[in-house]
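I trust your eye. Have a critical look at both lines of this record:
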Amino acid sequence: MTTGQMERIVLVRHIDGAPTPADFRVESLPIPELAEGQFLAKNHFVSCDPGTRSRLSPGASYAPPLQPGAPVDGFAVGEVIASRNERFTVGDHVALTGWATHVVSNGRGYCVKLPDLGVPESLWIGLLGVPGMTAWFGLKRVAQMQTGERVLVTSAAGPVGATAGQLAKIWGASEVVGIAGGAEKCAWLMDVAGFDRAIDYKAPGFEAAFADASAGGWDIMFDNVGNAMIDRALPHMKMRGRIVVSGQVADYNTPPDKVPGLKNTREFIARRLRMEGLVVFDDLAGFTAAQAELAGMIKDGRVKYREEVFEGLANLPEAFCGLFTGASFGRRVVRV
């Protein structure tokens, strides 16, 4: 028998423009009785992901939009505390979904029993979760990166971009250049994360600095920002260059008819370019091996990361909304 209360974050209304904390509310409800095949997990951490924004408006995305009143199903990591599911036993650590203190699951969908790889638990919704796996398979499968290539990473101080740039260096890139907002982020990319160069898009000399860095051409562009940045880079791509469309943080809050278009499309013909989007769950079968290898890189210091930890589920909406104001620096998680 399960008893007690749980809390979860629900969507108050469909969002027009940038999200605000008022677009969400905390809802309290009794923990339901478990049916046969279900288990109850107590979340320890929940994540803030820019991609969640694409489901908070009525328009179609790669996943169906949430309706007002629905719970938000962002990523979480926690521990099984009651179970009627033979595959999940009390004490198992799990990664699953739900902006909530507790989650009842039947083990379907994104629900994974976690091995002990000797890393902090929060990393299972960070570098060992969707952000890190997006960087890993974006370079490996989509970009098919080769040794000696020049790589451009946008939103490079975020968890996806920072991981992608570091992996590119480990895998033999001749040069990795990141674009980020602010001197502190750019300094961290070079001094800690090992990027060869970081360009501050907020600085007055950004266009000149970008043109100078682009003089050698880009084999790979790993984009997390959106169309305007892609269009800026297209004339600088090398022959048979590849553009990985990982995220669109600059466009998520823009109405579809206001999103910038691509003007330099002739470059696709002249340079035989390829641009491909990435939904990392296409690579789910490869997660276990990639996570084990990446955990080793984290433990031996080859891959660095930053976390911003907020305390309490009630602070999750504020933490999430800060992703779109430039306030975040690193992976934002909330300790439940």
